[in-house]
Amino acid sequence: MRTAEMMNTYPAEINLDRDLLARVVDTLVACSQACTACADACLSEDMVAELRTCIRTNLDCADICDTTARVLSRHTGYDANLTRAMLQACVQACRSCGDECAAHAGHHEHCRVCAEACRACEQACTELLAAIG
Fold first, then answer.
1. Secondary structure of the chain: what % helix, strand, coil (to 5)?
2. Minimal CB count within 10 Å: which of 21, 87, 117, 131?
3. Which long-range contacts (CB under 8 A, 24 or more apart) does 98-107 make?
4. Is the pTM of this model over 0.85?
């Protein structure tokens, strides 16, 4: 991904550490992809009915991560309150999805991988929240 490269080309000041911001955006995009793929894999399982909550949680988390990555990629007219709210929502979505996927990880490898991606994203968003203050 070219996230760090793009962050470094931004011509104005960014009030956050650009490397941290780039890492968080990359983690958000990776989590969104993992959640989307996990939802699709769940739909291919024989026991799809038992995975409904997992699928819904995957899709919600993917959408929230994707939107958060897009918001964090824009800096003109930066609003710290909006960024903070987006990150808080993302932390919660990743926690919920990580917990749901972890509950299925013993039977479905895609859920194990997704749970790991969610945990990493939750941690990255929490780190950026701390930096925002």
1. 80, 0, 20
2. 131
3. 98/122, 100/53, 100/54, 100/57, 100/58, 101/38, 101/54, 101/57, 101/58, 103/54, 104/51, 104/54
4. yes
The amino acid at residue 133 is: G
Helices assigned H by DSSP within 48-108: 52-72, 80-104
Crossing angle of helices 80-104 and 18-44, rounded to 10°: 40
Residue with tokens 């890492």: 23
Residues 6 or more apart whose CB falls under 8 angstroms from that of 7 comprise 14, 18, 19, 21, 22, 25
| Burial zone of 106 (CB within 10 Å; 0-12 exposed, 13-18 middle, 19+ buried) | exposed
The token pair that represents 55 in the structure block: 């699928």
The candidate with the shortest Cα–Cα distance to 38, out of 91, 115, 103, 90, is 115
Do 100 and 89 contact (CB within 8 A), yes or no?
A: no
